[in-house]
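Protein record
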Amino acid sequence: MVLFQQSAAASSNSLEYSRRLSEHQCLKQPLPAVLAVNRPRSQSPSDSAKRDLSYADLTREGYLLYDTQHYRAALSHFDRAIDCRPNGELALHGRGLAYAQLGHYRAALSNFQRALGLNADDPQLWYNHAMALAHLEQHRAAIQSFDRATRLDPSNHHAWYNRARSLRACCCYHGALENLNRTLSLKADCHYAWSYRGIILAAMTRYHEAIASFNESLRINERDLNAWCGKAHAALNLNDIDSAIRCLYQALRINPTGYQRIVCSRREFDSVRLDHRFVDLIAGLG
């Protein structure tokens, strides 16, 4: 699942990236080598032009490093790019992304805010701003930023999905369900949205609908641990112990570590884990 996103303008492999750099007056094409050698010294590029070119190169290299998950190296390049051009929106955005991937969400938020001060029309910037706020558990503020992101780009299913997560954190279950439905209208094969929809429906005690949503998730991805555990939870609330046993068995079979993290920490599953039928089933796993 995608958490933070590069804007189209910041993709190191896109034509849009070069166009945006040019618009920011920071991409100066160097003269061909033969001309540069023969050019009189008095016509050397100005310090400003050199800084512009350095900014473009450093920013581009920063995104290349980011794309290959070398986040600390990317951060260093973005720092140097911003030294060249303190109001460089693309470098500020990139530095925020690098900080976010390193888990420094306050620093990420600060950089996203600075970038938004320079370009408030970039939906990915608003999305990443919202994600940083959500990671800092500032969910009401995150919802407002997700609002800006979805107004600017209603087709970003990640924004609708993560807005639903922040709404759930604020106990706004109906709103969360509406956002998940919007997510799935944009990307019907988004298995984790189906799974999270099931979790929301179960929280609303709509257990049969929750199971149907979990089933849809598992149809798309049969290894969705959250769907198996969520379906087991809903089945328990419908007193369908046999179904709960089958679901937890599948969860343990596909992801023993995740099973331990989710199931063994929740007392609601104790009755299933101690049931002799479940014990007999897992004995065969060795």
